[in-house]
């Protein structure tokens, strides 16, 4: 099983690769407000996460996610139910 720290580190790597600005991506980064990603890019990122962690992230769960830390928690929780 992947640990919370490993999940968060992988999410940070994947998100950093998508962000075009010089802004550092941290666990407190607001995925929409701080990264400049549009809705299509965010959905592409979600699909990438689903592939990476072999999970399905429901849209209602994505709506609850604001920060990288929130996303890591959601991925970890969804991984437990897979």
TrEMBL record:
GO terms for biological process: lipid A biosynthetic process. Residues 1-79 form the Carrier domain. GO terms for cellular component: cytosol; membrane. It holds the Pfam family PP-binding. Keywords: Phosphopantetheine, Phosphoprotein. Coiled coil: none annotated. GO terms for molecular function: acyl binding; acyl carrier activity. PANTHER family: ACYL CARRIER PROTEIN, CARRIER DOMAIN-CONTAINING PROTEIN. This is Carrier domain-containing protein. It comes from Thermohalobaculum xanthum. The lineage of its organism: Bacteria, Pseudomonadati, Pseudomonadota, Alphaproteobacteria, Rhodobacterales.
